[in-house]
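Hi F.,

I've been meaning to write this up properly since the lab meeting, where we talked about keeping a consistent format for the predictions we share between groups. The idea is simple: the sequence comes first, exactly as it goes in, then the C-alpha cells exactly as they come out, then a line or two of notes. No screenshots and no reformatting. I'm using this chain as the first example so we have something concrete to point to.
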Amino acid sequence: MIIDSVKRAFEVAAVFMAHRSYQSLTHAMIQFLEEFEGVEDVAAYEVFNGVGRNGSAIRRFPLTLDEDFQDRNTELLQRILAQSNGGVSANVTEGWVCLDVIKEVKPRRMILLRGSLSEENRSIVEGIYAIYASQVALLDSKERDALTGLANRQSMETTINDIIVFYRNKESRKDRRYSWLALLDIDFFKRVNDEYGHLYGDEVLLHFAGLMEHSFRHTDFLFRFGGEEFVVIVNNCDEAQVSAILERFRQQVEAYEFPSVRITVSIGYCMIDPIAPPTLLIERADQALYHAKDKGRNQVINAAQLEIKRASAARQEVELF
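Output, unedited:
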C-alpha cells in the first residue's frame, strides 16, 4: 500500500514540476488536496516572523490584502507554529493535517487541510509534500533577487496580476482603500559605483533593501525591479495614507546612516486600477518617478496629481489660442 501511495505521488510530481511560479504551483496543490475523500477545506498561508501576535503574522493565499485579516484557522495555525519544525503534522482528534515548508523559503509557507484523511491518503500527502516543498524552494530561488533577497521582477508581474484579479472580484469599495504601486529609485547611484566601486554599491543596495523590509508592513509587497530601482506595492490604503507611508520612507532613507555616503530616494506611484494592464501601471508610476527626479529628486510624486496638473496646463494652453 505504501509503495502504491509513493507511486501515485510521483505520478503527479511531473505535473507539479511543470509549474513556473509559486502561485501557480500552490493553486495546483490546493486543487489536488481538495480531491481527497474526507477533506472539508484546504488553505495556504505565508508566515512572517517577528510581527503580529505571538511573534508571527499570517497572510492567507490566494491573495488577502487586509492587514488585520484573520480566518477561522488563525488560532490553530499559531498553535501549530509554536510546535512545528517543518514537514507534515496531523491531529486526528481535531481533524487537521498541516504541511509546513520552512526549507530555504521566505516567508514560511504552510498548507492546512481540515477534515479527516485515511491512512493511505495521508501517506500520499506525505509523499507529495516532499516534492512540493522541494519545488517551492526551487521556485523561490528563481523568484528572488540574488543580492537583496527581495522578490524579483518576474514575481512582481505575477503579484500585480493577482492584485488586479482580487479587485475585479471585489464589490465596490466604499472605504476608498486600494493598492498602490510605487517605483523607487536611489538618487545618483551611478556616482556611488563610480566613486566607491560596485562592491560598495552592492552594500548600499543591501542596506536599502533591509530598510524597506523594516519600514513597510508584512501586508505590502517588496521587489527589486532592477539596478537601483525597487518596487513597493502598498495595500489597503487610501490616497492620504499611501502618501504618508511613502513620504515616511523617503525621510527614513534620507536620515539613514549608509556607509560613508548620504543616500536619498525619488518615488513615483499610482493606484492599481483593476482595468489597467500591469505595463500601463508601471509606466504611470515611472512617469511620476521621472518627474520627481526632473524636479530635483528626493521627493514623492503621485501620478494622478501629475496627470491633473498636465491636463490643467493643457487646457490653459488651449484657452490662450
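Notes:
The longest helix spans residues 119-142.
The beta strands are 39-49, 56-61, 87-91, 96-101, 108-115, 178-186, 221-226, 229-237, 265-271, 300-302.

If this format works for you, I'll send the rest the same way.

G.
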